[in-house]
Specification:
- With 303 residues, the chain is of the alpha/beta class.
- The chain is built from ten helices and twelve strands.
- 32% of the residues are buried.
């Protein structure tokens, strides 16, 4: 393929089409009509000699094998070209687009509101999209180009990834203010295990690091509920052992905490991005804001 045959504007549209795997959403993202996006897809199919997007059952589109293979290199090439043609650093207020972030409930609760507020002040044209969390696949989704930033417990390595330590959160036991256990003089192991517990899980698992620590001393707890939110603690006698960062969420005013009566390793989080976004000013800004609001969120945890 000769470069003089390639329309760079078409490549921008192809990037959005492959990212969304949906003609309508790609058109909306780029400010195009749906017929224009469909026409661009037809031109791209002719250019690459591949369907790129094909019908999937029961409905919708899916990327072909070649489309999956070209997503990362295409995005990286477009990011580098944007830097080359830019007259200078972009004005943050002029930035438009979206930054996609995946994080578990803990950093999501701790950082979401502060991050959104700071972004609205610095770059109001950037939308922040929190993608659903599924434990263990954050880095894979980052490498596939489905998200731009990931906050994860996994410390990853590799030439394509940028990983930095993001923060450490010790555990506390959370409960509502008028919980029976909140009034006891000594909140010990027996008191803790006398109540049923709630677990936040991205996979629906009923056990986690707390259960492993209990197993080492020959004890166990009853996990009554597995879910993605803390609000249930506010209206039940359930207890939850969570990293302290969640105490800056909206539910924190209705909760109190006690020290965990066994030794638990704190949760260490890492901020990970792919090198394809090194020159993306929006992703760089959000990463910068995360570094700024992260320590404030930890300091403001009311535990």
């Amino acid at each position: 393929m000769k470069l003089r045959r390639v329309d760079l504007n078409l490549l921008v549209i192809v990037d959005a089409l492959l990212d969304e795997a949906h003609v309508g959403r790609a058109a909306l993202r780029l400010g195009l009509s749906q017929p224009a996006a469909s026409n661009a897809l037809a031109r791209a199919r002719a250019l690459f000699g591949d369907p790129l997007l094909e019908r999937a059952q029961p409905s919708g589109l899916r990327r072909t094998q070649r489309a999956d293979a070209m997503r990362g290199p295409l995005r990286a090439a477009l990011a580098e070209l944007a830097v080359i043609v830019a007259a200078g650093p972009p004005e943050l207020a002029d930035l438009r687009g979206a930054v996609r972030l995946v994080a578990s409930d803990v950093p999501g609760a701790a950082l979401g509101a502060a991050l959104t507020a700071e972004l609205a002040k610095r770059a109001p044209g950037i939308d922040l999209i929190f993608h659903p969390w599924h434990a263990g696949d954050e880095v894979d989704r980052l490498q596939r180009g489905e998200v731009d930033l990931a906050i994860t417990v996994a410390s990853t390595t590799g030439n394509a990834l940028r990983t930095e330590h993001f923060g450490t959160y010790p555990y506390s036991v959370l409960m509502r203010h008028d919980h029976p256990a909140a009034a006891v003089k000594t909140f010990d192991l027996d008191c803790w295990l006398a109540f049923s517990h709630v677990v936040v899980s991205g996979r629906g698992d009923r056990q986690g690091s707390v259960d492993a620590a209990l197993a080492r001393i020959g004890r166990h707890r009853r996990v009554a509920t597995v879910l993605h939110a803390l609000e249930l603690l506010c209206d039940t006698d359930l207890l939850g052992a969570f990293p302290t960062g969640v105490m800056v969420s909206s539910a924190s005013a209705r909760l109190t905490s006690r020290p965990v009566p066994i030794a638990l390793e704190p949760v260490s989080l890492h901020l990970v991005r792919h090198h394809r976004t090194d020159m993306d000013p929006a992703v760089t800004l959000v990463a910068e804001l995360l570094r700024a609001v992260g320590p404030r969120a930890r300091a403001n945890s009311s535990v």
